[in-house]
């Protein structure tokens, strides 16, 4: 009997010929990312253990959450990351250079077939590179730093096959929001979401990152897309060493716990209404909802094609007065490219607020008052996540966000 | 340690996320006592007061979904939660909770058969739940065997210390 791509990666990482869903294995870790918000607990516990880091080159401390810190307390929190990187002489330390997940993928730090863990639930993003990648807590990261290994229960896999050509201004974000609304916020708990099909094959790596990024919103352990020509081209462009990924695909007779087929030819732009990312509805159902702010960015949708889409829609127009539209490039690299291509100037001229790369608005940086409404391209709209528990967040694609920014209310980008 | 008896002090619904357990905007300190004081405050301002005497929290599906922040189980434990019994747990939360020594029991029919005020007697190793108030026996999923050793040590870090020490000897 064959294996899924996830089973193959975990078999190799645990030194076994084959593994099956449900088995407990101990896997070698290839990459360990630690962000500044969960870092202090990791570092405190790790220092107490008094052992060296198992492999300095495989550890990636990143300051992205409290970026910019904006308070003394946050300045203290991030200083723990700086101290750790210095005391343990960690070469791959990124201090406010962008969102960790974007840095990991754009620097070629994660390769197809690897096992990556990170103290952030959206670590599942790297699955779009054909890696097994998942979020863990601080204490487990401490164990990884000491031993370079972690136990996993081999997950069952849900196969999601996507067919059809998306309409103009319908994006990969709309596909994942639609899937989440179909299977629910616990529709893939403990399981793998494996994406395939012609729509995925035709998609850029950037769009694929958006899909795998939100696998966790269905409770999935990991999201994964098999590496292909597009992955190869992405790595070649970065100058990353191309690894041999022969066999990195799911066998024809691999076992799936569930198979979902989606045809996205007629898919409407999706909007996830409060308070769950799985509350997606067609944009037409909430069109006209008045908003107070827009955020275009985050590890979900802060990449160059996202900013390009926003710039195309907003360029030459004016953002209404008394309305805020934040643009948060996912990294300095994205920022630089968006600046060179003139996107940032066009957005700024229109009245958008260009913010430094980082986790930015998807959390504590752009808090909202009681009753305010935000539409953002990020991945979570839980109660109180962005300020007052009486504020609300709607999630959508960069195209829907940009269209909505022009009108100050939820707008269908297809009607522009 | 494995056999416990407590009252249910809080009952919550489905999809309680870790953001609402320890909201990012209040994460100015990682001290357990502080985390306990802000725990779930946006959802229920009296939560830490209700849990003060120490007891059980019961909940529905997907408990602990969202962010991987370990402050969430730390806050619950510090607020006085001795055991969480839920119909279903989100994966990262479940591991985090057991790693810091907060027991979690999966019981698919807990909300139908127990409520705030009931006294439960628990066998963590077997997953048995006795609702003494109602005279009911419920079956939960016990802590996985592979986690038992670390759990009995008080969590992953004490276990790791032990293993590393044994390795040296």
From TrEMBL, chain A:
Domain Aconitase/3-isopropylmalate dehydratase large subunit alpha/beta/alpha: 8-408
A molecular-function term among this protein's GO annotations: 4 iron, 4 sulfur cluster binding
Cofactors, names only: [4Fe-4S] cluster
Pathway terms, separated by semicolons: Amino-acid biosynthesis; L-leucine biosynthesis; L-leucine from 3-methyl-2-oxobutanoate: step 2/4
Swiss-Prot/TrEMBL keywords: 4Fe-4S, Amino-acid biosynthesis, Branched-chain amino acid biosynthesis, Iron, Iron-sulfur, Leucine biosynthesis, Lyase, Metal-binding
Record has Plastid as a keyword: no
Assembly and oligomerization: Heterodimer of LeuC and LeuD.
Role of this protein: Catalyzes the isomerization between 2-isopropylmalate and 3-isopropylmalate, via the formation of 2-isopropylmaleate.
Protein name, as recorded: 3-isopropylmalate dehydratase large subunit
Gene it is expressed from: leuC
From TrEMBL, chain B:
Matching SUPFAM superfamilies: LeuD/IlvD-like
Catalytic activity field: (2R,3S)-3-isopropylmalate = (2S)-2-isopropylmalate
Pfam family, one: Aconitase_C
UniProt GO MF annotations: 3-isopropylmalate dehydratase activity
Any one GO biological process: L-leucine biosynthetic process
Pathway noted in the entry: Amino-acid biosynthesis; L-leucine biosynthesis; L-leucine from 3-methyl-2-oxobutanoate: step 2/4
Protein family membership: Belongs to the LeuD family. LeuD type 2 subfamily.
InterPro entries referenced in this protein's UniProt entry, alphabetically: Aconitase/3IPM_dehydase_swvl, AconitaseA/IPMdHydase_ssu_swvl, IPMI_Swivel, LeuD, LeuD_type2/HacB/DmdB
Subunit structure: Heterodimer of LeuC and LeuD.
Annotated ranges, domain Aconitase A/isopropylmalate dehydratase small subunit swivel: 51-102
EC id: 4.2.1.33
Biological function: Catalyzes the isomerization between 2-isopropylmalate and 3-isopropylmalate, via the formation of 2-isopropylmaleate.
Protein name: 3-isopropylmalate dehydratase small subunit
The entry's keywords: Amino-acid biosynthesis, Branched-chain amino acid biosynthesis, Leucine biosynthesis, Lyase
Gene: leuD
């Amino acid at each position: 009997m064959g294996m899924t791509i996830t089973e193959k990666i975990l078999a190799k990482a645990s030194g076994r010929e084959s593994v099956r869903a449900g088995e407990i294995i101990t896997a070698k870790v290839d990459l360990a990312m630690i962000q500044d918000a969960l870092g202090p607990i990791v570092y405190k516990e790790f220092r107490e253990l008094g052992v060296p880091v198992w492999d300095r080159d495989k550890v990636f401390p990143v300051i992205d959450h409290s970026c910019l810190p904006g308070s003394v307390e946050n300045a203290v929190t991030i200083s723990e990351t700086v101290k750790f990187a210095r005391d343990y002489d960690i070469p791959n330390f990124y201090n406010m250079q962008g969102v960790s997940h974007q840095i990991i993928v754009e620097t070629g730090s994660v390769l197809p077939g690897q096992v990556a863990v990170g103290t952030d639930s959206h670590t599942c993003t790297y699955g779009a590179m054909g890696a097994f990648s998942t979020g863990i807590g601080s204490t487990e990261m401490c164990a990884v730093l000491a031993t370079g290994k972690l136990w996993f229960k081999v997950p069952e896999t849900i196969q999601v096959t996507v067919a059809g050509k998306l309409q103009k201004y319908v994006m990969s974000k709309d596909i994942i929001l639609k899937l989440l609304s179909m299977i629910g916020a616990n529709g893939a708990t403990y399981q793998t979401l494996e994406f395939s099909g012609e729509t995925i094959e035709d998609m850029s790596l950037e769009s694929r990152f958006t899909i795998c990024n939100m696998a966790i919103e269905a409770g999935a352990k990991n999201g994964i897309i098999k590496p292909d020509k597009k992955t190869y081209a992405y790595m070649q462009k970065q100058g990353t060493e191309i690894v041999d990924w022969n066999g990195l695909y799911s066998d024809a007779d691999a076992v799936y716990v569930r198979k979902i087929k989606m045809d996205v030819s007629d898919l409407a732009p999706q909007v996830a209404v409060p308070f769950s990312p799985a509350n997606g509805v067609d944009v037409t159902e909430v069109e006209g909802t008045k908003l107070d702010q827009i955020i275009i960015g985050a590890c979900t949708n802060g990449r160059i094609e996202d900013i390009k889409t926003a710039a195309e829609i907003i360029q030459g127009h004016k953002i209404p007065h008394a309305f805020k539209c934040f643009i948060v490039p996912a990294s300095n690299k994205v920022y630089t490219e968006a600046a060179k291509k003139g996107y940032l100037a066009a957005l700024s001229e229109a009245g958008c607020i260009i913010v430094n790369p980082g986790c930015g608005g998807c959390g504590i940086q752009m808090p909202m008052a009681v009753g305010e409404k935000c539409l953002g391209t990020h991945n979570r709209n839980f109660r109180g996540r962005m300020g007052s528990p009486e504020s609300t967040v709607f999630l959508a694609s960069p195209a829907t966000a940009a269209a909505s920014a022009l009108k100050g209310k939820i707008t269908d980008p297809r009607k522009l | 340690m494995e056999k416990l008896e407590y009252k249910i002090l809080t009952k919550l619904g489905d999809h309680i996320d870790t953001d609402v357990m320890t909201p990012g905007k209040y994460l100015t300190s990682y001290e357990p006592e502080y985390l306990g004081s802000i725990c779930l405050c946006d959802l229920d301002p009296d939560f830490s007061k209700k849990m003060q005497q120490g007891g059980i929290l019961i909940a529905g599906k997907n408990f602990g979904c969202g962010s991987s922040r370990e402050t969430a189980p730390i806050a619950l434990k510090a607020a006085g939660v001795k055991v969480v019994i839920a119909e279903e747990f989100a994966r990262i939360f479940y591991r985090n909770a057991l790693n810091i020594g907060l027991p979690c029991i999966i019981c698919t029919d807990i909300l139908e058969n127990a409520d705030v005020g009931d006294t439960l007697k628990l066998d963590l190793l077997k997953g048995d739940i006795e609702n003494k108030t109602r005279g009911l026996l419920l079956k939960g999923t016990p802590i996985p065997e592979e986690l038992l050793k670390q759990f009995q040590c008080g969590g992953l870090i004490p276990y790791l210390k032990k293993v590393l020490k044994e390795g040296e000897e």
